[in-house]
Write a structure and sequence with these properties.
The chain is of the alpha+beta class. It contains six helices and five strands.
Amino acid sequence: MDSIDLFVKNWGSKNAMVPIERDDIVELEAKLNTFLPDTFKYLISTYGLVHTPNVLTKICDLGVDISEVQDFLSLEDIASLSKLYEMSGMPKGHILFASDCKGNMFCFKLSECASQQIDVAVWFYNYGLGTVTKVSNSFTEWLEQFNEL
């Protein structure tokens, strides 16, 4: 979990982040009929909803070709936006968990969350193109790319 702690230290805004109660996470998993990866649950139960406004600036300054993360979604938004985005054209079977500054979303594949997992791949939904592409083999690896900036 070191890379998650480092990500929050490096990129999390200093605004008060409130850890999310485990019971609320379990309730969301029941509502979605799936399991969120343990690494993601560690992030939100330890730190809360991380806001990372400086990631975009750093990526632009370095000219790096990675999609920036700006906001991690609330539990309510995870449930509602996952359905809303599917209704607006996103391929079915994804759980949204974070966004960039342009309405694009980072997500987990529902099929990869069918059983309890420590970590799963991260996918990127490009709202403008209507495509979902794999951006990392794991949530931890995905956060690591930002730690390396």
